[in-house]
């Protein structure tokens, strides 16, 4: 239920450029900025250093996230359709008393004390590596083979300490999904023979079958409340976004992932893909790369982890050199 705001915080909100932040606000008054709550917290509110027990934060781009419980990070990892703008990776970390830190494409905002803590942890977990996040390509070119010359990868800063136990929800699926999703999950596991190399991956998953539970990925590309179960499913997403993965982690250890694939485009899960369709197995291989802890490489890398996919990009089913080196480092 939205409540018209009469607090001082609403004055600050009116200067925020996002029209989505309208008349409702649940933050504490500015003079008592030690806590923020409600369903309309802004990044500017977080910048005052407030602690968040529960609430929903709206990013300047309109994506909304249920703030994770203290000690938890939630990451949202989209993949764009080629020609669309990549909305960018998001991670939101609730440090408890030090407030909430937000990173969008490596740009930090939120509570200064939280940013200091989270950045230092993130640099330790990723080896200090920075991630380049170019926009999606503006032209749809023929899909290249996954690159065996490009060695780049990016680590997101979390890893799994046990196999990812997951289920799939086929409700609304635009293509037969379980086999394609399982092949994608398994593309990163076991003994990988990639580009003439043999790499033993530590990534692992256990498929539990179908479920009626919905993934906690929201239609605007944000992440909802984690359920404790990792689920893939289908639903609307913003135009230009093919899929989004949300991962929850605590001190660098992933505890849940959810994936949503858009129902707004046509998909294929056949061995050969044709027409104006996106290849579910290829796009899902990318989403599983995120699930296992990999971020984006440059679009020109030709790797699975490039940020945007073309139609029938069958090459995205197969790991390139950087993808294999990345999963070796991430698992
Ligand atoms: Zn992605």
UniProtKB/TrEMBL annotation:
Keywords: Hydrolase, Metal-binding, Metalloprotease, Protease, Signal, Zinc. InterPro entries: MetalloPept_cat_dom_sf, Pept_M10_metallopeptidase. It holds the Pfam family Peptidase_M10. GO terms for molecular function: metallopeptidase activity. It comes from the Bacteria. It is an enzyme of class 3 (hydrolase). Residues 1-19 form the signal peptide. Its EC number is 3.4.24.-. This is Matrixin family metalloprotease. It comes from Curtobacterium citri.
């Amino acid at each position: 239920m939205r409540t018209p705001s009469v607090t001082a915080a609403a004055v600050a909100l009116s200067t925020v450029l996002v029209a989505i932040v309208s008349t409702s606000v649940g933050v504490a008054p500015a003079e008592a900025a030690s806590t923020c709550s409600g369903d309309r917290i802004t990044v500017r509110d977080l910048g005052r250093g407030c602690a968040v027990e529960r609430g929903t934060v709206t990013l300047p781009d309109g994506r909304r996230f249920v703030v994770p419980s203290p000690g938890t990070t939630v990451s949202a990892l989209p993949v764009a359709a080629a020609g669309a703008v990549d909305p960018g990776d998001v991670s939101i970390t609730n440090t408890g008393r030090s407030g909430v830190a937000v990173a969008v494409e490596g740009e930090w905002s939120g509570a200064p004390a939280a940013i200091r803590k989270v950045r230092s942890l993130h640099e330790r977990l990723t080896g200090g590596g920075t991630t380049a996040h170019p926009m999606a390509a503006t032209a749809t070119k023929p899909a290249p083979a996954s690159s065996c010359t490009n060695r780049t990868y990016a680590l997101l800063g979390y890893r799994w300490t046990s196999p990812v136990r997951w289920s799939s929800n086929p409700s609304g699926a635009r293509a037969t999904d379980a086999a394609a999703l399982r092949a994608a999950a398994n593309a990163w596991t076991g003994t990988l023979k990639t580009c003439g190399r043999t790499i033993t991956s530590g990534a692992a998953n256990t498929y539990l079958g179908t479920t009626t539970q919905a993934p906690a990925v929201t239609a605007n590309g944000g992440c909802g409340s984690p359920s404790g179960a990792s689920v893939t499913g289908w639903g609307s997403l913003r135009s230009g976004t093919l899929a989004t993965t949300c991962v929850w982690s605590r001190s660098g250890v992933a505890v849940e992932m959810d994936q949503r694939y858009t129902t707004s485009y046509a998909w294929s899960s056949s061995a050969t893909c044709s027409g104006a369709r996106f290849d579910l197995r290829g796009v899902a291989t990318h989403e599983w790369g995120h699930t296992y802890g990999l971020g984006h490489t440059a679009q020109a890398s030709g790797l699975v982890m490039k940020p945007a996919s073309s139609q029938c990009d069958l090459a995205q089913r197969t790991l390139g050199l950087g993808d294999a080196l990345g999963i070796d480092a991430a698992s």
